Amino acid sequence: MRKVPVGVLAQFDADGKLLPVSITWENGRIYRVEHVLGMRVSRMNRENRRYDVVIRAQQTCLYRTGDQWYMEAE
């Protein structure tokens, strides 16, 4: 697996949580995040977050480290 940097359009909800709305893949294609199923903060590094999301009817993970976002690809 390789880390693929992605662009993310995100918004804050009413509770102040940052939620991804769409991602821009390395080829420039934009994909809408259909659902955010949850978010986890790493115990090792509080700056690392994993968002469990649904994109194109597929459950996948979107990662954020500081201000950078990435996904994994084969």
Description:
The structure is a single chain. The protein has 74 residues and is mainly beta. It has one domain (2-73). The protein is built from no helices and 7 strands. The radius of gyration is 12 Å and the shape is globular. The model has no long low-confidence stretch (mean pLDDT 93).
Features:
single chain, 74 residues, mainly beta, 7-stranded antiparallel beta sheet, 69% strand
Termini Cα gap: 5 Å
> What string gives the helices and strands in order?
EEEEEEE
How many separate helices? 0
* DSSP summary, beta strand count: 7
Structural class of the secondary elements?
mainly beta
Query: Overall 3D geometry?
Result: globular
Low-confidence runs of at least 5 consecutive residues: none
Task: Specify the helix fraction band.
Answer: under 10%
Q: Tell me about the largest β-sheet.
A: 7 strands, antiparallel
Beta percentage is over 45%
Mean pLDDT: 93
Main sheet: which strands, in order across?
1-7-6-5-4-3-2
Cα gyration radius (Å): 12 Å
Supply the number of structural domains.
1
